[in-house]
Each structure stands twice: as structure tokens, then as C-alpha cells.
């Protein structure tokens, strides 16, 4: 989300409100004088802006700052009053997260359900029920609802162009979901994009302006943060990394070609290689995380077949990741999903390939990190995306009756 | 280049000066009233800003706008007064370009020279001589000098970390060149990055916010424009696309591995495949463009060996480009260097691979285009990069004595 252009006094005030709010998010509580110093605004302007942010429920006055001078109250992001809702539709689960501007979790829940098998209409019903649960969980103002979907999403129109693993094509999800939520506006975005947003907001690489997130699920997707913002490309389809053609004589891929990266390092490759026939790890009737923890236990116990598979996958993960690092030069590659769960064994061979294959000295400064958001990155990212609208334009949040500075003569 | 943050009145005025100047660049001459309408500024503010831009030599009053109302003079970018200088160091040539803010060419020259063989110090001497020639060609104010180099460049420090084809490593080019130019500041950047800037400013895909430029030279490099700005990544090393590992059993590459994209589609692959032993096309003593025109003539005459080679290279060009389109989702891929010269034969098979391999519907809207800047894209991009400093902050350009609006009370 980008703020409107700054071409007049109202635009300037909006930009400065966003500047203060972003400063509090990035650097924590400040006194009003401290905010003025850090942003280059005058103390009077900073105070006037803080009053407006307070009136909009975005900040509050908290503790008194320690120090020798006159005691000053610290301004901090206000918990609970302004929230964002994230939803996720995935192959075998749906999820909800409600976060507030202060980064606090108001609600979070995951429902195991065969969403791919349920059919589109029942899936939308279920997402709507989760959204209502989220709306009921807060008495604050809800900045927006963003749904994460594993597929190609037309963000501008809220249409899922193609989500092969869900069996959706040209699904008008934003419209269909809004219709079940009394017309409340809904945004839809790609799950890897939203996961990257979550990592940037609150993950192991939080605040890193240039990072690449890789989903480790049935498919392999990428979300790219560049210069502190999500890289969307011309039509919103960046980060389709699963079909890097790495081996002309490799295994057949669902896309119709051979040797795509996904066939080497996707979840199916892992399960096929670690599990002999009849092994419970390969039994789709068992919950996926349970099966992955079994793989983890075997690796920890030194099982040769498991370790060989993880070493091979880690190596191919590094080969593909090196391509993306050479193209994008991120400061961090964050491994998500099953890559993170088994990162202890996947990361070392992947790091070795990166070191050998990235052309820039010292890997261009890139670190390979394991996400600690597990399989919740996308839904958390949905909530962050909804909140980002307010961080870009704090005047979206409604003022309460006690707005202490409604004076329209304060120009800045 | 990004403008300083807009946190005060001076910042606002600077941002609005940049807004007007950018509007004139993107949309051509406007009356002052037209500028006000398009930017949302008041007419009084727009007039005051135009006066300042005039005083800084960036715009001038030109023709009277046609129409029924009161006649109004059109404001347009002023030729000649404010310039940017581009230089290029390449394997077998050095080049100079001087452009003004209006996009006019003040000077342009290319010197055939074995720069790789000359050694670093002599190369810097030659670049300094070209820079002096450029400075002498204009009596306007020079916004900056930017040098294009085929290699990994640390832009912040002006250091060429590694330019294998020139044999340079950890070369402090900005400092060494400034030392020969009386301390005049010099920037250094990657040639593919600068070529992408030139295409964005004035090429076949001018103004396209998301585009990918591919150099077709000894090496294959990429320059990425995303959201209207150059994508630099964490340490400035984006776009290293030549070593996409496309064939594990392919030909050995200079990087030590096999089957890199560069081994399939770089200039060496072309010359090897089209030319039997003893063929003048493979004779390094003959000028490269002459040899490429010979290849072109043979293709036009239907020579089977040439056509087979171009079809194979075009196909592999499309395979690699499809990876980049899936990752970056550009609206245009612009083929430069020899790819453009032989584009008539390379583009059709490349387009077929893109159509088959890009996952987004309709190629994600991406078109494959042939550059019309030939081998001059990088040096022109250097001149544009130097000018971009002034487009981002017009107050860098000095005011002349006749500055018609020096009144510091004009706040906006």
C-alpha cells in the first residue's frame, strides 16, 4: 500500500501522521520530543500529530520516560483499538488471525478441513464464518480483511486466477466473501506474498528491507520484499519460483514439464524419499504436522534414509535459492513451512550451495534463516496487510468523540 | 535516487518541484494552469514553482498553447542548460554520452579500444579523457558523471568489486576517476542496471514501471526496473542472471560450473555455433558489429546453419527469460546488445518458450521487445542516472542571478 501523493497541506499532514506511526512501529515508544527529534518535525507539530493519532485510537500515552530532565510521557502504539483480520484458505486447513496495530494477537485459530475437496462455495462459507468470528473477537475498528490463497491472485480485483492445489480458477473471492459479510471490503493476496509481509513485520528477519520468503509446502512459492515493500510486478504475479527448470531429465511436474524445482524440493518429494511403502509418514490420513514431526525425530535419531533425503533436498533447495539470490540480492532468505520445521538438516547443505553459487562476494550479504512463524505466516501476513493500509494513511481510522485536536487550522 | 523525506515545508517544496519536473518529463509541455490541474497544486503554487525551476535552468517558457481561452505559454524542459554525463568501460570499447534534462543529446562518442588489455590505470586515464571531452561539450551545469561497468559494483562506495571480463577486482573507480577530474564526484554502476534505466527513460518500453533488460554480450546480465525504480537489492547486486544453472550436463562455464545460461546464449555460444573454423565471423581481429551484421545477412539469406543456431539460442533465451518473468512479473522484457541485432530470428522461438513456461495467464501481460538503443544503452543510462539526481531533487541545480522568485516566504 502506498500513501496518496504529497501535493498539498492535507497530504503533508497525512504523510507526517504516517511517518510518526511508522517510527513508533519501527523503533518503539518515544516521548513527543523524541519523536520530533527523530523525524525532523517541530515539537509543536509532533504534539499536534500525536493528539490526532490518539483521537484515532492508534496511539496512547504510556509510561513516563526515565531520565534527568522534565519527566515526559512516552507515546506508544495502542493495543486493541484498531485491528486487521487475516484469513487463509489452504489445501487442508483454513485459518484466522486478528492483530492490532501494536502487534498484539487478538485472536488466532486454525481449522483442519479438506478445503480443496469441500468445493468453492463451502470454502467461502467457512472463510466467512471465520471472518465473523474475528469481527466478534474485537470491539475495536477493523481496518480490513485480507485472505491468503496459494495461487495466482489478481489483487486489484480480488480474483483468484488460478489456485491449482485448491482447484479454483477465476474465483471472485473478494466479492463472494464480501457478499457474506454485509459488504465489508475484502482483499485477496498470494500466500507467499503475505508470508513475506509477516516476516518483514514480525519474523526472524523483521525490518530487513530486502528479503525473500520461500514457502515449503505442496508447492514452493516465493514472496519478495524489496526496499521495504512487497514486490508485485506488473500484474501482481511475482515470486512464481516453484517451476524453475533445474533438470531437463528430471521428474515430471504437474505443470507438464520435467525437473521443476518443486519436483525436487516440494513436500511430495520429501514424503516420497523419506518413506518406504506402507510407512505412516506417507499416509495422507495422518495429520501433516504429525508426519513431519516423525521425520524430524528420525533425522534426530540419525536414520540414514531420512538424512540422505534431507541432504539431497537441502542441496537442491540451495541450488534454486542461489538463482533467486543472484537475481534479487536479498539480505535474507527466510525458509518457511516444512523447510523451517526440518531446517536443522536442510539449511547446512543449502547454505553450502548458496556460498558456492552466489556470484556476489560473501553471498551478497545474504543470510539463510528459518522462519519461526511455522505454518501461520500467511494468515498473520493477511492481518498485517490489512493494518498496513492504516500505517500508510492513518486518517482512515475514524476519530472518536473525544478527538483532542480537531482544529483544522493546524496545517501540518 | 530517492528524494529526502518530506517532513517540513522545505521538503514539501522540494517534493513539489520534483513533482512538476517529473510531470513535464512524463507528459510533455503544459501551461501553468495545466500543471496545476494535473498535480493538484494551486495555480499560484504551480506558478511559483515554475519560476524557481526556470531560475535553476531546468524549464523554460515555450510556445503559446492553442485553445479558445486566454492564451497561455507552455512550460517545457529546457534544452542544454543542465546535463548529465555517462561513461562506459567495456571489454573492447569505451564510450561517452552527454544528455540534457530535455532528453537531448549534447555529445556522444564511442572509442574502439582493448580496455581489458590496456590495464586498469590506462583505462581510467581514457575514461577521464572522455569525461573531459564531455565537460567541454557543454556550457551548462553538469549534474553528475556515472560510469557503466560490466560487473559487480558497490554503488555506495564507487568500487568495482569484480568485473571478470575487464580483469578488474576491488577497483576504486569513482575515487580514481574523480582524482583525474579535479575532484568532481563520479558514480559507478552496473551496465545492465544503467541500460535498464535508459530503456525506462527513452527506449522501446519507455515509462513501463516494471521492465527487465537483458544484455546480449559476452556475458548476459539483467537490469530490473520495478515500480518505476531500479531494483538494487540489499547490496546492489541484483540482476546477476548469466549463471542460471539450466543444464547440469551442459558446457563448462567460466564460473567453474556447467550449463549456465551464459554458456547457452552468450556471444561466445553464438559465434561458436554459426561459424565453422576459419570463418571471418569467428575472427576476433574483425570488429564485432561487422561480424554480427555478417551473421544477420546470412540469416536473412536463409543460411541453414545460421538459422539453426539462432533458433536454438532463441529457445534457450526464452527458457531463461521465463524464469525471470515468473520471478519478477515484468510488463516488458527488453532484449539488448546482440539479442536485439538478431532479434528478428531470436525473438519468435523465445516468445514461444515464454508463452509455454510463464505460469501467469497471458504471460502475466509480459511482452518481449527488441531494444533500439543498440550497444549504447549503458552509456545513455549513465547520463540518465546522473540527471535523475536533479529530477529527484531539483534544488541541486544552481540558481542563476536572474532567479525570478527567490522570496523565502513562498512556503510551498
TrEMBL record, chains A, B:
Top-level taxon of origin: Bacteria
Pfam families in UniProt: MarR_2, ROK
GO molecular function, one term: DNA-binding transcription factor activity
Protein name: ROK family transcriptional regulator
Entries under InterPro entries matching the protein: ATPase_NBD, HTH_MarR-typ, ROK, WH-like_DNA-bd_sf, WH_DNA-bd_sf
Entry similarity comment: Belongs to the ROK (NagC/XylR) family.
Limits of the HTH marR-type domain: 19-70
Gene3D superfamilies: 3.30.420.40, Winged helix-like DNA-binding domain superfamily/Winged helix DNA-binding domain
